[in-house]
Automatic annotation (TrEMBL):
Protein family according to the UniProt entry: Belongs to the GST superfamily.
Record-annotated membrane-spanning stretches: none
Upper classification of the organism: Bacteria, Pseudomonadati, Pseudomonadota, Gammaproteobacteria, Pseudomonadales
Sequence ranges assigned to domain GST C-terminal in this UniProt record: 90-213
Official protein name in the record: Glutathione S-transferase
Disordered, as annotated region: 209-230
InterPro entries: Glutathione-S-Trfase_C-like (IPR010987), Glutathione-S-Trfase_C_sf (IPR036282), Glutathione_S-Trfase (IPR040079), Glutathione_S-Trfase_N (IPR004045), GST_C (IPR004046), Thioredoxin-like_sf (IPR036249)
Superkingdom in the source lineage: Bacteria
Limits of the GST N-terminal domain: 1-87
PROSITE patterns, per database record: GST_CTER (PS50405), GST_NTER (PS50404)
Length: 230
């Protein structure tokens, strides 16, 4: 059994997609990030960066008691290695998947995240920041579109690279991107959206997805943290 500490954000959806694809048993423990749940000592014990998702695997391969893992990319790698699925054994194919996973973790996720912040949450409009991150998101969509030319999936076969990337493309309209400008990406997006496990993964988040708009106090919790204010 796996405990998933989760909130229905792009990074949270990555993990439910994998768990649904692999058919693993898991329990969701919601972490309301706009209410400050990520700063509770019990959560910090497994996720010291006060970010979700995180997992606790009660049956790790080592057999040495429960194992906790934080950071969505690390969780995907851990689960892929645990199950032997969605991460090739062949070294060349394997590094291709890992490269694109790191591309999402270091590129698409952070840049789209800043896009979301300045377009949707910033207390005042900052045109330079909006243009900067909308343009960079657009550039990254172009990189992905090129990679998907002649390929069904990001790294060849369906993999954790697809699971990591898709949730960050779901809010493309908020990111001010038009999928019609990226035909290969749009084809891939539609194929991902239609996968039964992806549908189930998003349904898992439905109970918490229709929450009210983030309050000013919630924004302070999400965006106002420093090293001495956690």
């Amino acid at each position: 059994m796996i405990d998933l500490h989760y909130w229905p954000t792009p990074n949270g959806h990555k993990i439910t997609i994998f768990l649904e694809e692999a058919g693993l048993e898991y329990d969701i423990h919601p972490v309301d990030i706009s209410a400050g749940d990520q700063f509770k000592p019990s959560f910090l014990a497994i996720s010291p960066n006060n970010r979700m998702p995180a997992i606790v695997d009660h049956s790790p391969a080592s057999g040495e008691g429960p194992l906790s893992v934080f950071e969505s990319g690390a969780i995907l790698l851990y689960l892929a290695e645990k199950t032997g699925r969605f991460l090739p054994a062949d070294p060349r194919a394997r590094i291709t998947v890992i490269q694109w996973l790191m591309w999402q973790m270091g590129g698409l996720g952070p840049m789209a995240g800043q896009n979301h912040h300045f377009v949707k949450y910033a207390p005042e409009e900052v045109p330079y920041a909006i243009q900067r991150y909308v343009n960079e998101t657009n550039r990254l969509y172009g990189v992905l579109n090129k990679q998907l030319e002649g390929r069904d999936w990001v790294a060849g076969d369906y993999s954790i690279a697809d699971m990591a990337t898709y949730p960050w493309v779901v809010p493309h309209e908020t990111q001010q991107q038009n999928l019609d400008d990226f035909p290969n990406l749009k084809r891939w997006f539609n194929a991902m959206q239609a996968r039964p496990a992806v549908v189930r993964a998003y349904e898992k988040g439905a109970p918490w997805s229709s929450r009210p708009a983030v309050t000013e106090e919630g924004k302070s919790l999400l965006f106002g943290q420093t090293a001495d204010k956690r």
